[in-house]
Design a protein that fits this description.
Number of strands: 6
Strand content: 25-35%
Order of helices and strands: HHHHHEEEEEEH
CATH class: Alpha Beta
CATH topology: Nuclear Transport Factor 2, Chain: A
Structural class: alpha+beta
Number of helices: 6
Helix content: 40-55%
Shape: globular
Number of domains: 1
CATH architecture: Roll
Largest sheet: 6 strands, antiparallel
Amino acid sequence: MKSLKLIAILLVCFWAAGSLTVRGQSRAKALKSPEALVADLYRAEKGKSNPFFQTRSRALLYKYFEKDLSDLIWHDVVTSKGEVGVIEGDPLYDAQDMEIKKFLINKPRYEGTNAIVDVTFENFGQKKTVSFALVKGAAGWRIHDIIYGEGRTLRSEFKEGS
């Protein structure tokens, strides 16, 4: 009889601990890793919440990017008024036309409070790597820049386009 009570008490404790964890989890918690943030950005880009070309919510940019980069993207989309701005193609694939295959978000490489997440894929049969430089701040991981290779980055596009 005592063992049944002990089992019942243990089950209640495990159930309570499990439900606290589930109830306490939020979508933000799932984005605490650099690769989770990058993966969520790619999902948003495919859906109705593409942060790059929308003018409804500046906060949507702040979810993914550092404030200064968010402000550059926001200014570009608002001032271009539906026309092509500094961002000419899709910044996540560094292309205007896409036929994406073999898409993979790699594990991050850490350098202190910074991380690099490489995303590899083929576009029209050509292998491509786009790297995301992330920094960890009070609000969690945010993208500092997107690196395309050969010295080109998203930030450098804004410098050249201004």
